[in-house]
Design the sequence.
């Protein structure tokens, strides 16, 4: 996808086709995309410009040995709470990499996630440097001429190692009220005793290795986040700094700063300032609205590409400085061959997307969250081997999709639940419009069921609220159900009009709704702690109790046998054989918190459930009579959203993650030896 300056946004979206040749992870799980997403840092091996590394804000590291044509995940697996804020490569010794890690959570857990990790073999293996354990590391710098000197910026201040990371010492004052939360660092290339540190409130400098520090902010707008600092390699008295307030230049090692002009205020939030490795007069600025270039040391600026990429990091090939690489929010990794005038997406193998919705029919549809114009609703017509972006967040009217449904009678008819209501598409996901369902005049109809008065309010508007789940009845494809925090809604005419279920026993807040595929009268609704069942299409409801009644209900699924329902809870797996009236704990299994179920439509006796404990997966091939531990080696460390079966091949299983896209277990690759029988027949 070549993104030229003259291309319209609509043309850009229409051209996005993400080819996803599978990457083998552990065991038999494969990553199948859709490629792209969020990239936080990109660096280049100084000795080998064809070798690049990319880090993300949720614990992933990728590398490419062919200038970004293909990316491969490295064996660095903490969890999605690990933010990889910094990565530096040794300028002389091949294979030596330092990685700075902090936790995304506001309250660090002190569990070995944070610190500085080092690899001596190009990222194949990593070691947490012991003395840095539990340091929330936000920045790293390695001296270009004395690379045994490594400096780390943390939430507590600045640390320095003079022997390649073996030993560290604090060089900033302990408990300093301002010199903490160090998000950027720079070393003087001629004098390693000179260190610059940027904080969320202006920059600092030491000229004696940390014995004393000076606040250097004269000329800067007060309260400026110092995202990056760069020392001119040809004149160390000239220093550049980028901040939320713009770009600054100093000719006095930071004693006095001048705000550089020429970039409009809408583009001033600058994540990175970088000097060209070949021509020292060329300066690049990566902003939240795109890439800017100065040919004269910052005196004048020009935006190189009109598309407003959110640029987090830049790498430049020292052997051909017209080749630039960008790590961006949403659009992944971009490359330019002409000094930034045009860019090409290079995301083959790289994925960092939050998958929120998924439906597998002959055409597979999925949705991703917070990807702007580079994500939204994707489709695949070749069993997830390649994906096409059908609708960006712009086409989705600015909304993020959290649940998807497709009509079993019309593959072009889709529904998307969002945080602000329900959307509908009648052309296979290309265009969307909001579903409100309002009639000119509301009416109510009363009927009696099971001796209880029940009222369904018809002709109501589907409220602009969070649609937690949307389902189309397989037995009656014109009927759509929407589960919301304001109750359960039903439309019997493809969303044109709606009614809300109300009355005794009717759920007030619904997280999930299920309709039996062979009996449209059998509906099951679920909230976080309660389960509601209707056997007469919602005319009457019965609230059922699972276990103690205080446990959390995570998921429900209809089983293969008549009247069978499975419930995944915080206290184990429960089963009902009478349509949900009574429940029994499934014995013979460890007491696991069961997160989600998956039952094959084509082979209903084939079931999986996912535990919240280390992503353990269990499988049953006989309708739940016996459960065995499944091959879940490739899932450890992932943050999993849900599972789904393939409609094309009944035994293929999809796993949807919160930051690594879609994984698939293809039946053709399955190894029976990977299963370990952990449970005997439970009945």
Sequence:
């Amino acid at each position: 996808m070549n993104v030229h300056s003259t291309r319209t946004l609509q043309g850009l979206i229409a051209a996005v086709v993400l080819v996803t040749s599978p990457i083998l992870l552990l065991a038999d799980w494969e990553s199948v995309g859709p490629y792209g997403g969020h990239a936080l840092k990109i660096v280049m091996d100084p000795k080998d410009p064809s070798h690049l590394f990319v880090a993300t804000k949720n614990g992933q590291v990728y590398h490419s040995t062919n200038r970004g044509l293909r990316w491969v995940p490295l064996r660095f697996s903490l969890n999605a709470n690990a933010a990889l804020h910094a990565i530096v490569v040794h300028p002389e010794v091949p294979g030596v990499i330092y990685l700075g890690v902090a936790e995304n959570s506001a309250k660090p857990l002190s569990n070995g996630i944070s610190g500085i990790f080092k690899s001596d073999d190009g990222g194949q293996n990593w070691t947490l440097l012991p003395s840095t354990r539990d340091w929330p590391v936000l920045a790293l710098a390695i001296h270009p001429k004395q690379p045994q000197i490594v400096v780390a910026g943390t939430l507590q201040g600045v640390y320095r190692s003079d022997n390649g990371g073996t030993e560290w010492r604090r060089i900033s004052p302990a408990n300093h009220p301002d010199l903490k939360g160090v998000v950027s660092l720079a070393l003087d290339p001629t004098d390693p005793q000179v260190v610059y540190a940027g904080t969320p409130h202006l920059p600092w400098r030491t000229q004696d290795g940390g014995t004393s520090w000076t606040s250097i902010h004269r000329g800067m707008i007060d309260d400026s986040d110092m995202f990056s600092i760069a020392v001119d390699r040809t004149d160390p008295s000239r220093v550049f700094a980028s901040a939320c307030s713009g770009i600054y230049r100093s000719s006095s090692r930071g004693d006095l700063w001048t705000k550089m002009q020429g970039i409009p205020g809408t583009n001033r939030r600058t994540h990175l300032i970088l000097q060209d490795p070949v021509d020292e007069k060329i300066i690049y600025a990566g902003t939240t609205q795109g890439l800017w270039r100065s040919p004269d040391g910052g005196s004048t600026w020009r935006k190189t590409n009109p598309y407003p990429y959110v640029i987090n990091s830049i790498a430049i090939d020292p052997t051909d400085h017209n080749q630039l690489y960008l790590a961006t929010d949403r659009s992944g990794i971009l490359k330019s061959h002409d000094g930034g005038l045009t860019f090409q997406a290079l995301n083959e193998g790289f994925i960092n997307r939050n998958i929120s919705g998924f439906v597998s029919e002959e055409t597979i549809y999925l949705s991703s969250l917070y990807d702007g114009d580079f994500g939204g609703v994707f489709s695949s017509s070749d069993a997830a081997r390649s994906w096409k972006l059908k609708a960006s967040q712009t086409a989705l009217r600015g909304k993020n999709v959290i649940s998807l449904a497709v009509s079993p009678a019309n593959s072009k008819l889709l529904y998307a639940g969002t945080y602000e209501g329900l959307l509908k598409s009648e052309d296979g996901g290309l265009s969307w419009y909001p579903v409100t369902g309002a009639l000119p005049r509301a009416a109510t109809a009363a009927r009696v069921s099971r001796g209880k008065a029940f009222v369904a309010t018809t002709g109501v508007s589907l409220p602009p609220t969070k649609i937690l789940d949307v389902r189309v009845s397989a037995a009656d494809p014109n009927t759509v159900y929407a589960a919301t925090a304001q109750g359960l809604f039903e439309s019997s005419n493809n969303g044109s009009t709606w009614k809300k279920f109300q009355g005794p026993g009717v759920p007030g807040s619904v997280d999930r709704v299920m309709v039996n595929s062979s009996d449209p009268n059998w509906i099951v609704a679920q909230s976080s702690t309660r389960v509601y069942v209707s056997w007469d299409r919602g005319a009457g409801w019965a609230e059922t109790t699972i276990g103690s009644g205080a446990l959390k209900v995570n998921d429900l699924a209809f089983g293969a046998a008549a009247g069978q329902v499975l419930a995944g809870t915080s206290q184990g797996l429960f089963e009902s054989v009478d349509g949900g009236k009574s429940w029994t704990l499934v014995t013979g299994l460890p007491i696991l918190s069961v997160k989600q179920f998956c039952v094959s439509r084509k082979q209903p006796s084939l079931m999986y459930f996912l535990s919240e404990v280390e992503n353990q997966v269990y499988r049953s091939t006989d309708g739940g009579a016996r459960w065995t531990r499944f091959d879940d080696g490739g899932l450890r460390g992932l943050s999993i959203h849900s599972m789904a079966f393939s409609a094309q091949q009944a035994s293929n299983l999809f796993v949807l993650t919160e930051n690594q896209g879609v994984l698939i277990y293809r039946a053709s690759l399955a190894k029976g030896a990977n299963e370990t029988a952990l449970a005997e027949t439970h009945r």
Observations:
- Residues 1-27, 437-457, 669-683 have pLDDT under 50 and may be disordered.
- The two ends are 56 Å apart (CA to CA).
- Residues 545-683 form a domain with the Methylamine Dehydrogenase; Chain H fold (CATH 2.130.10.10).
- Helices lie at 9-14.
